[in-house]
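Two entries, shown back to back:
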Amino acid sequence: MTLRGVFKEWCMGLVACETEILERPMEFYYSMVKMVLAVAIIMPWCSSLAMDIHLMRQLTAKYNVSCILVFGDSSVDPGNNNALNTTIKSNFPPYGKDFFDSRPTGRFTNGRLATDFVAEAVGYRKVIPPFLDPNLKLEDLPYGVSFASAATGYDDYTAEVSNVLSVSKQLEYLEHYKIHLRKLVSEERAEFILRNAMYVISMGTNDFLQNYYLEPTRPKQFTLQQFEDFLLYRFTRGVEAMHRFGARRLVVVGVLPLGCMPLMKTVWNQQTCVKTLNDAAYSFNAKLIQQIHKLKAKLGLQAVYVDVYGLIQSALTNPKQYGFIEGSKGCCGTGTVEYGDSCKGMSTCSEPDKYVFWDAVHPTEKMYKIVADNVMESVTKELSS
């Protein structure tokens, strides 16, 4: 089988994922773990977010952060693909193994996503619901929703390949959200919510792995550098559209080191990260950072960039520093190729919290919690600046 054939068989629905660099001395974390364990024995109902929640909620209240609105791929899709005619789904076991009631929801992990933890930290709900959830109620809308769709990207063609929600479609649903919100609250209040929301954007991985390195269309039209510039153009158009809806606060997640995914190492038959793929991600992220700065100045945005490339590299290089023991493979099946439908019904590792990856592509709930902590720290600094 050709390399392209292998990609077509395995590389559907990929995701950007992230981790956090912990800079304090290890002795600090050892002491904190001991303290948390001691408190948990006495008060098992205490939230693990307690150390972060107080300051975060103070700041979000002070600066009127109204809700969280999410756009992107499977890194932030809580189940929108469940409602689509696509094979890119995860609403079956073992996904959701550690979610509430061990329920698979369509999240590509064993539990909650980073955006769920952020929502809890700022005092809204414990989860961000998918906008296409048939059980979503009008009264849930003011707390925020996710329009994200697994396997999508900045390039609308990336979404077309897998029949999922493009960025254009996600923005169309934002318009629907606004209409429904106006029905629930006054037009003035709806505008306030949209203007003070935290807009989260997390995608880009599928554009490279599923689109550029798989499908023949874009490589015939663009060199890799030209394709990166095209993605930046699409990113900019999306942010400008959000700005017209009222967006003033933005969290943008970069692209992870693509070549470090267990699946990619397997496909390329390498024990170490694939340099070609990592170089593409690094190059795009550098351009993305520059573009964010330009948009901040042009549109008057408060914007945070999440450096998933550096964070993932650190976590995979020093897994024990983050409490992990395994960073080279996922928890589901062999951990080298399984994700999405190929993970369905597979056995899993006994301790997902010891793994960086849940399947061969997507991180575990614990990793998403680390991502959320990083986001909250960055947002706190941006709001306070």
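entry 2 starts here
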Amino acid sequence: MASETYQSKNVCVIGAGPSGLVAARELRNEGHRVVVLEQNHDVGGQWLYDPNVEGEDPLGRAPTLKVHSSLYTSLRLMLPREIAGFTDFPFAVKKGRDMRRFPGHTELLLYLKDFCDWFGLRELIRFNTRVSYVGMLDGDHAGGCKDLKWVVRSVEKKTEIFVEEVFDAVVVASGHYSKPRLPSIKGMDAWKRKQMHSHIYRVPEPFRDEARQYIVNCEIVVVVVGNSVSGQDISMELVDVAKAIYLSAKSLDISEGLSKVISKHENLHLRPQIESLQEDGNVLFVDGSWVIADTIIYCTGYSYTFPFLDTKGIVTIDDNRVGPLYVHTFPPSLAPSLSFMGIATKIIGFPFFESQAKWIAQLLSGQTTLPSRDDMMHSIKEFYHSREIAGIPKHNTHEIGDFEYCDRYGDHIGFPRLEEWRKKICLSTIRNAETDLETYKDSWDDHELLQEALQSPHFTQLGPQDLDFPL
């Protein structure tokens, strides 16, 4: 629904990662005054690799994390570059840089820096600035959402100067791949040997020849808990340095690709979930098998956390469900003055973030409006119910995995639907990973789809490009 009135707002964006950057651009394009607060020294968010993890709590249980990024050195994109990137700024190959279809994380950081510089966003960002508090002015919103304002307190990390400001709206784009999510395992707190979350894993070298640390005839191994992306990647790295790796998975019904990897490496073993941990280093699995382990690496995902945000209990986190949020973005009673970006997962992220940013910007300017508060709450309850019927756990509430859902989201503002070639390449990649986990990033069979992508308006819109894909 369009509005005849136009309003320019003072907006605070928290975070200068992919979602925060595109939010800043769209808000400015819509005529809003934008300030981006970023705790690190540069843009990138999670993609700003930080090798220095010394001093970080190995399990991430400390109230405040020192390290934001959870990237490990060897990490490469899960999806090919041609389906990543924002719709009007293709993630094109550049000579002298990482030219692979599935580049490493440094290449994506460079893309984000290019995006930032191309659209002149740096002038909007305050770097090395940590947000300590975000709350409603006067502590409530009795005047209604239209009159709601937000107090934002931040500190410049180098000077330790505190600043308090008032904004008309806040966009939370602080990411959710930093705070470790840990399992509850009997004996976990009493286990004496090394335990860590993948949040602080960087390179495999510290795990080399660890058997020397303990007595002879004691089999020293690494147990990796969780067989999702990071668990698989880290296990495959450790096979060249550790004596033995046991990959503990919820289900032993694994993909063909992972099965091939396990059969190829004699020191990589699949095990079910852990039953308990013993003080002597014994790891007991639910099938009765056990091993003496030196290290346990928990590749068990991350928790949504917003320690700076005070909504007087309106927005809560329950078993990793942030809610209530209308379409993973707007808390009905605080919208559109408070919004969240990047909450949804298992999507082609950048186009989705872009549609989110455009919608938020247009809502704040009054160019479009949201449904009524009651209608939004009804929609949220229906969505929760549909997930329950489908047997999806509450902690997976924000995992979408549905092209149609993303397309319907963009329909709110007439955002173009994902191109068919983009969807097909995504599905083709997932299939290849399922069958050839170790090789799919360097060997593929979707050459026709790749050509269709490179010849599409997405890649040709900016004029001649240095498109030198290794075909």
